[in-house]
């Protein structure tokens, strides 16, 4: 997957989980738990969505690496390359 | 004959708006069927019916706001002949049926059928309850919207797009069916749901604090066993079946409530009515502000995996803004868990007519002394807000220590 594809996927799922969030205002470097108040259920749903789209099973211990847009891109890049 | 009344869906509801009827006169319904979609100040609720029978008459049309207890519809119960047919026919308000668009539309969008003289060959508009609620808030005319959802159903996005669209050249009818006298504004300011929600929460909490003699207990719980067990369990599970630790908390509360019956049930008309069932209300916060505490039913009898499925489904529907009446009305005890972004301690306000509220703070690593040794452990503060009319501190303490004991043996939950 290219970085752009990962980004698109991430933002699409984020929109599904938190439809009230303005995606253009997301700071890609900041933890979304602080930025838009994502909770553990949201993070789990994000992990499930990414798994369903990419086949990558993200172990629970890796969740903290994918709670920002940049972090998720870097993590999935590592896992899919 | 049986009456179907505007239900009271919690202490903070005194009126509701009928958004949509899902049945019409002549339809057979059975207990548990969803028959109507009702909007309260807090959320949209799919209302289940408690009788089995045939709908004879719809009394309150769509779009109307009526107080709790108002007669909404009449049904004939089993054994009664469906003799009221002529009357049913006359009363049929052709709910949520929009008249077909006129062939040459000088007056553009049309109106809900109740205001048209003869509903000639009306067609039903497919719309989700959420989209319906948004349409009502934004005062968007449904007839002017082309649905893009399954089978042409109008989605929330369609409604929002229509609200943003520039005004139609011809005056568009509002949702209520009245053509506005002045040229329509492009988008009417939406109803301020967070503000109305704040108001209804305030009313329920003020009533709670006025009527319920609260007592408060708290204890620290060592969560190392529970968290270690959960971590190992989740390693075995694919991502789609993983558990959150809240599920352990909900199960522990439900089992402890089975042991201490004074903690679950309702205080109604000056008396405590204990409940056999443990329907655990889960306080779910909304990102826009406010919270709702719908129930997961029979938590004591569900496996952890089943509770997790229910919890995921509930959170999803709370955030989408559509719940079922039974979930809203029948929690027998409520749990509020602050999660990992929260603080360490919460003493909640009991949600009447319930008699207890259990609070869990965030899990933090703290020095913990045990067997003469001090070590770092994940520690969580558990609290109980109890109703002194139904229980006292001694029984309440027994409840909290039971929760603590159960969490030390997570594999048995």
Task: Write up what this structure looks like.
The complex is a heterodimer of chains A (81) and B (413). Chain A is mainly alpha-helical and 81 residues long. Chain A has a single domain, classed as Non-ribosomal Peptide Synthetase Peptidyl Carrier Protein, Chain A (Orthogonal Bundle). In chain A, helix 1 packs across helix 3 and helix 1 packs across helix 4. Chain B has 413 residues and is of the alpha+beta class. Chain B has 3 domains: 90 residues, OB fold (Dihydrolipoamide Acetyltransferase, E2P), CATH 2.40.50; 68 residues, Dihydrolipoamide Transferase, CATH 4.10.320.10; 200 residues, 2-Layer Sandwich (Chloramphenicol Acetyltransferase), CATH 3.30.559.10. In chain B, strands 11, 14, 17, 19, 20, 21 and 22 form a 7-stranded mixed β-sheet that branches. In chain B, strand 12 and strand 13 form a beta hairpin. The longest helix of chain B is centred in the middle third of the chain and has 19 residues. About 16% of the residues of chain B have low confidence. The chains are: A mainly alpha (81), B alpha+beta (413).
Annotation keywords:
heterodimer, A: 81 residues, mainly alpha, Non-ribosomal Peptide Synthetase Peptidyl Carrier Protein, Chain A, 57% helix, 0% strand, B: 413 residues, alpha+beta, OB fold (Dihydrolipoamide Acetyltransferase, E2P), Dihydrolipoamide Transferase, Chloramphenicol Acetyltransferase, 3 domains, seven-stranded mixed β-sheet, five-stranded mixed β-sheet, 9 helices, 22 strands, 25% strand
